[in-house]
Amino acid sequence: MMQTVVANILAQIESVVIGKPHQVKLALACLLAKGHILIEDLPGMGKTTLANTLALTLGLSYQRIQFTSDLMPADVIGIAIFDETTKSFQLHPGAIFNQVVLADEVNRASPKTQSALLEAMEEGRVSVDGVTHQLPEPFFVIATQNPMSHAGTYPLPESQLDRFMMRLSLGFPSIDAERKILQSTASHRDVTEIKPFLQVEQLREIQQHISSVRVSPAIIDYVIALCRVSRQSESQAKALSPRAGKSLLAAAKSWAFMESRDYVIPEDIQAVFSPVCEHRLAPQQHHIFDQADEISQQILSQVDPTNPLG
Predict the structure, then answer these.
(1) What is the DSSP track for 69-85?
(2) Cα angle 188, 198, 25; round to 5
(3) What is the largest CA-CA distance in the chain?
(4) How many angstroms separate the Cα of 189 from the Cα of each of 15, 105, 179, 183, 282?
(5) Which residues fall within 8 angstroms of residue 5, CB to CB, at 6 or more apart?
(6) Per the omega criterion (within 30 degrees of 0), is the bond before 138 cis?
(7) Whole-structure pTM over 0.85, yes or no?
(8) Which residue from 259, 246, 159, 186 is spatially nearest to 211, judged by alpha carbons?
(9) Phi and psi for 168 in degrees, rounded to 5?
(10) What would the pLDDT profile of 218-261 be if each residue is shown by its tens digit?
């Protein structure tokens, strides 16, 4: 039954985001694994459409924040205002207090505002004037960003990039997909046909099931070996941390579930390795779409999944 629900979710998203079934599947796998997702591409490629459709299809409370150069942290988190009636400060919550938050063009805001997302993404809570406030559960951040070469962008610090389980690029559509897009009369603003396929409890049940997907010691060794290759001094990549390894396993579990298995195989690790690890491996200037798989594929080619630690 869970698999049927997931298949319906994928079908609905793919009917809106045309010609990108693999990217749609990766994005859903990320959110089902309780991860946050960064969608990076040129303007007009469907980044916001994918994020919007994901949120609406999952049936969760949703808020979009347009990140601009003058956006302040209080605009994201909220602000405490003194209430004369109660003689105390009351929090006026910002957009972050939703189950799904779309941080649109996140790299157009200043680093100070970008950092307002850090505690929220890692801990599921925020602090305002020294008081900690819990965010809704589940809590997902879907961020979009434009290429670093575009004017008015600020690169995300590595500490924040590491909070995203996956980074995706949609890329240009195929000829057939672009023909369907151009022939379609539907507007990207028209979301009336998008209906939620999940209740919150169903989503939590799926996430709990995914967390129980079995991982053998051999798969653990495979992940360790991949991380160790990235840490070699001759490697051009940045080292993968244990947090990256945990993200890789979580994403692989979700991918295995979507492939109708209750155990992880090496192919699951390989399927999610690039979107999970590329933004951690590559220097900022390498975040270019035609180089997206170069470093990760080099690492994958150096490890034999049948004998990962030699």
Answers:
(1) TT--HHHHHEEEEEETT
(2) 60
(3) 69
(4) 14, 17, 19, 16, 35
(5) 197, 198, 202, 206
(6) yes
(7) yes
(8) 246
(9) -120, 150
(10) 999 999 999 999 888 566 668 889 999 999 999 999 999 999 99
